[in-house]
Amino acid sequence: MTVAPNTGSRMAFIGLGEMGKAMTRNLHRDGNLTSPLTLWNRTKSTADAHSADLGDCKVAETVQEAVESADIIWSCLQDQSAVEQVFDSIFAADVNITGKLFVDSSTIAPEWSNATAKRVIEAGGEFVSMPVMGEPVVAAAKKLICIPSGKPESVDRIRPYLEGVVCRAIVDLSGEEPGTSSLLKLMGNFLIMTTMETVAEVNVFADKSGIGTKNMNKLMGAMFPNPPHAIYNHRMLTGEYYEGTPIVEVYKALALTGQVLDMAKSCGASVPIYEVAREHLKLVQEHEGSKADITGIYGAVRVKSGLPYRNGAAEGSSNEK
Question: What residues make up the catalytic site (predicted)?
Answer without folding.
Answer: 185
